[in-house]
# Entry
Amino acid sequence: MKNIFFSLIFCLFGLQANSQLFGKDPILNLQTEDKRLLNWGYYLGLNQYDFQFEYKNDIGQDILVDRSYGFNVGLIGEMRINEFVDLRFEPGLLYTSRLLGFPGFTTEQDAIREVRSTYIRFPLLAKLSTRRMGNIKPFVAVGGYTAINLGSNEDSLDDNRSGEFRMKTNVYGYELGFGIDVYTEFFKFTPSIRGVFALTNELIPDNDPNSPWTGNIEAMRTRGIFINFTFE
# Structure
């Protein structure tokens, strides 16, 4: 994810080198783009998801999380409030995978659980922008979301004794992020970085309250980082 972050920074510097976009007297592109009441677009991006665990007792080793990269795609509906504030609805589909390592087991079959998740997400965000500077406009975004985890296994009767790791289907949380609107000749391109933090305890405990997998877990919440590329 660090490599992706630095690639994004280099991309922005490359755009900055284009005098038509960022010169002393740039040619202003899409001058009426932000004056419409409603704007539409779509986004593509990458994500890296993690878990934050809270334990009942501070004993033993923590559960290890091996993160991998996933992807996210979605649509954007934006309503203009004023020059500096927009309200955005960004429904989308997200896929991610995490590998959990539970301490205390002697076999890989018991110690490792792969958690694959496909989320349908419904974020509602406030986009707080600066005044447009030539053909760029930085902003921050903050808001909440609800999501449906299609790979939760919530209704499964099996648990970790049978190799089944279960999570709750419905998730609620908040997002914080920042980005830069870049006004090109034909469309508005926006690279952005966003942190995602679940408020919901997503864990469904095993049937045995003393389970070696979930017995000591008080709560388990998703957190992650997105890098999105938006086209409007």
The two ends are 25 Å apart (CA to CA). Residues 2-231 form a domain with the Porin fold (CATH 2.40.160.20). The helical segments are 2-16, 19-22, 108-111.
